[in-house]
């Protein structure tokens, strides 16, 4: 029962993390223009993996999609690939988790379901690592440009989408680890049969075939009074 509750908790964590990671990809604020050193803000620049936008003081936004995928910076292409891989791995992890959980009626025996749950945990861990790497790579580029004194272009700060991606990555990794440890609780619970067979084999090997037990170890024959009388009667007629 405790193992089933643990798997349900792991499923809730991983599913929540996967939803957060999926919502991070279309999110708008991956990076926001820094207001450090400015007195009057006339426009706010922000960008994500797919477009860059500017919002003026009246609240009107103008966005421009990235014209070419091959002309993009390498870190944006890497972040796109990592985030898409994280979403795909999380989807397959959810399918394997539904099959491998003990509260479901599909998946076969407990051992096969435990192996399936372990595979789901590995998928969720990889999904969390991919998302964590993408958000960290994007954040590293932002911080390196912000603290570079030779960088004179527009400087940005960390957006809300990065923190959502980090939170989802941590949830996926934690839930995946719990799923992986659930395979340890699916081992056979009854070991008495193995112990009995080991004890029997040990007793047989201690007395090999062709060697009788010593006379001192043999139990003394028990004769009842009726057998004595019957034997005496037979001898009497001889």
Automatic annotation (TrEMBL):
Predominant localisation class: other
Entry's localization field: Cell junction, Tight junction; Cell membrane
Region named Disordered: 203-238
A GO cellular component annotation in the UniProt record: bicellular tight junction
Highest taxon in the source lineage: Eukaryota
GO molecular function: structural molecule activity
Keyword Signal: yes
InterPro entries found in the cross-reference section: Claudin, Claudin10, Claudin_CS, PMP22/EMP/MP20/Claudin
Stretches that traverse the bilayer: 75-99, 120-140, 160-184
Record's keyword annotation contains Hydrolase: no
Protein topology in the membrane: Multi-pass membrane protein
Keywords from the named record: Cell junction, Cell membrane, Membrane, Signal, Tight junction, Transmembrane, Transmembrane helix
First and last residue of the signal peptide: 1-17
Function per UniProt: Claudins function as major constituents of the tight junction complexes that regulate the permeability of epithelia.
Family: Belongs to the claudin family.
Protein name: Claudin
């Amino acid at each position: 029962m405790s193992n089933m509750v643990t798997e349900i908790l792991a499923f809730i964590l991983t599913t929540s993390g996967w939803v957060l990671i999926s919502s991070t990809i279309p999110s708008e604020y991956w990076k926001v223009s820094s207001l450090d050193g400015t007195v009057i803000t006339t426009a706010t620049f922000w960008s994500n993996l797919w477009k860059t936008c500017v919002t003026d003081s009246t609240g009107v936004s103008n966005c421009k999609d990235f014209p070419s995928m091959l002309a993009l910076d390498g870190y944006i292409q890497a972040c796109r690939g990592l985030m898409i891989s994280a979403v795909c791995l999380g989807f397959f992890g959810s399918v394997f988790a539904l099959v491998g959980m003990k509260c479901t009626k599909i998946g076969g025996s407990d051992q096969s379901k435990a192996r399936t749950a372990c595979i789901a945990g590995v998928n969720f861990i990889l999904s969390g690592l991919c998302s964590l790497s993408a958000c960290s790579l994007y954040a590293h580029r932002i911080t390196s440009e912000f603290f570079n004194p030779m960088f004179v272009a527009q400087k940005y700060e960390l957006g809300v989408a990065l923190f959502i991606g980090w939170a989802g990555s941590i949830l996926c990794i934690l839930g995946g680890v719990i799923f992986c440890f659930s395979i340890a609780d699916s081992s056979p619970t009854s070991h008495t049969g193995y112990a009995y067979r080991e004890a029997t084999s040990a007793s047989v090997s201690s007395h090999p075939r062709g060697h009788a037990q010593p006379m001192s170890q043999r139990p003394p024959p028990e004769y009842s009074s009726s057998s004595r009388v019957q034997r005496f009667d037979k001898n009497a007629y001889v």
